[in-house]
């Protein structure tokens, strides 16, 4: 029996999807929102955590780290994500969090079942149609530091606030913003944020 | 028999949800993405169109108008939306598009079935838990003109470009942006965009 924790933020969708998975005799299915996922992980101790990369609390950035945090005396579950090829930033984050499985939301639900079984055996599962998304993820133009600057700007921080929290001069922050705008092919700062959020980098 | 067109952007979720609805003997269920919905409406001619307000093409603004467009010789379907109380802007847009039904994504799937049956009879159906969202929608602080200015800014347009496309002076656009920032309680322009997108106004 494979114990699966299904993480999705919309309760209505989550219950229907969990019920659908429960028809498979080898799956024991539990479900949680992103908010309640850390607690459910501790109580359910799933073999596989299947998480939708959309998160209603944050546009773009689900708290993947919390799903994979190692705790004493506990084997972390194997992570499978439901993703889209159009948001390479989220694919990259999932890979960095150690996800083994990647199922395209444009796939059939049968593929989710296949992915869960493969990941439960410790094997990687990558949906063919996500290939282009992974390619784009590899071509991410911004450095880690540039992403930090842009994330703060996207939260509404001023140049002075960004400079203060990253211990940089105002001029350096402006240079970073100019480089970010150029590298993302944006028209200005707001456009750079829009483009980066759309692709899932922020 | 109630003919239902289910509109949701993620194929995997959509197929499972459609299959779940098909267990009801009085529902004839078809499904489509937002992109293919206008074509499906013409071929399926549903009694009820049940649409998820999240749309992968645009953060926040599903093309609701296309679901409700009147065409010669065709009765438009009754519209039911799957929504969240945390994005009042989307609730308001759905109301403006003439939606009869509002089901909370945090509800149980049984409520979706109840909503579809009520809306098919031409009756309004509003999930109790969406009440606070409707209250917030009524308190929307920005005028239509301010929203137009902010939408263009969010797409990356400069003050000059906004002025040009709305036939305003640069100073007037700056005044609008200052008023928007104040009214949304934002720290600056980028923060105003972030807040407004989060609530579904943009």
TrEMBL record, chains A, B:
Residues of the HTH luxR-type domain: 135-200
Superkingdom as given in the UniProt entry: Bacteria
Residue span, Response regulatory domain: 3-120
Modified positions (4-aspartylphosphate) in chain numbering: 52
Keyword Nucleotide-binding: no
Pfam families in the record: GerE
Keywords, sorted A to Z: DNA-binding, Phosphoprotein
Keyword tRNA processing attached: no
Matching InterPro entries: CheY-like_superfamily, NreC/VraR/RcsB-like_REC, Sig_transdc_resp-reg_C-effctor, Sig_transdc_resp-reg_receiver, Tscrpt_reg_LuxR_C, WalR-like, WH-like_DNA-bd_sf
Cross-referenced PANTHER family: TRANSCRIPTIONAL REGULATORY PROTEIN DESR, TWO-COMPONENT RESPONSE REGULATOR
Species in which this protein is naturally found: Streptomyces cyaneochromogenes
Name this polypeptide is given: Response regulator transcription factor
GO terms for MF: DNA binding
Database matches in CDD domains: LuxR_C_like, REC_NarL-like
